[in-house]
Amino acid sequence: DAPTVLVTGGAGYIGSHAVLALRDAGRRVVVIDNLVTGFRWAVPADVPFVEGDVADMALVGRVLAEHEVGAILHFAGSVVVPESVADPLKYYRNNTAASRALIEAAVAAGVPHFIFSSTAATYGIPEVVPVAEDSPQRPINPYGMSKLMTEAMLADVAAAHSMNYCALRYFNVAGADPQGRSGQSTAGATHLIKIAAEAACGKRDHVSIFGTDYATPDGTGVRDYIHVTDLAEAHLMALAALEADPARSHRLNCGYGRGFSVREVLDAVDRLTNRTIERRIGPRRAGDPDSLVADNHAIRETLGWQPRLDDLDTIVRDALAWESGLETRRG
Ligand code: UDP
């Protein structure tokens, strides 16, 4: 019997999809989430749920022992880049310091495997696109730095203790569970596909385009949008790799290796809804690179990961389906 997996932030957007993937694969799961941005209903009723903070080492220690946890998938954290600029210490607390406490509890309990939600924001403004894992990591905001510091802790801990880890560096995660069991639910979204889906569902009257003078084919920012269900699958495969070879750790980009511009995303939403969202051209947003696309050779080769939902229309369609049913699901 495979050991239980602890999912921190399992009530959040990406974490809840990972819980579904683990459960679908027959793995036992326990979730810790403080419900600050997550939702209790996002976790299936048959999955043990502990409301609490990952920085609470006593609580985490009890959960690790009681459930005989053999791996941790660590999603819990704060993710809003502009907020990290305004309140950096919140990010160094919720991301860096909380991760430090969680890792210490994991080492104390002898947990052998750790998977960490890292980000393309650790690369800052890349010199070369598509960006590979060995590119310089020079974050340009506290969010990216708070995640990079956790990567550094994990590398040092893996060298000193019997734990291996995988840092998965997410590009632009979007979409929703194709079966409609979870999706992006957080209010006050800042991400393009979520905002466009809200507009398409009549919850906003326009979408602002943040800059049209970027060095891209149509002048708007280009990003590597990855379907959240493919990303959840990558976590399962990363877990299998860590379990198969405890001597190896990994740092892997999670993206499709191709980008779409803001206009291409909005065109897709218009096409799929047969409507026209009002677009307002606005100024650039501070700290946005022209183009951010993953070199994904490493994750394909190391994990054998193969995207199954690599299609902008599929991502947008699943995001729209979730968005249109959100209020009824929330109850
Ligand atoms: N963007 C935009 N309008 C919005 C939100 C985002 O034009 O309301 C652009 C943003 O400048 C970037 C792309 O869409 O080029 C993706 O931004 P998002 O915030 O979704 O993700 P990020 O790449 O910043 O993590």
UniProtKB/TrEMBL annotation:
InterPro entries (alphabetical): Epimerase_deHydtase, NAD(P)-bd_dom_sf, UDP_G4E
Domain NAD-dependent epimerase/dehydratase intervals: 5-247
Membership in a protein family: Belongs to the NAD(P)-dependent epimerase/dehydratase family.
Cofactor: NAD(+)
Pathway recorded for this protein: Carbohydrate metabolism; galactose metabolism
Matches recorded under Gene3D superfamilies: NAD(P)-binding Rossmann-like Domain, UDP-galactose 4-epimerase, domain 1
Assembly, per entry: Homodimer.
One annotated GO biological process: galactose catabolic process via UDP-galactose, Leloir pathway
Molecular function via GO: UDP-glucose 4-epimerase activity
Class of enzymatic activity (EC top level): isomerase
Keywords of this entry: Carbohydrate metabolism, Isomerase, NAD
Domain of life: Bacteria
Protein name in the entry: UDP-glucose 4-epimerase
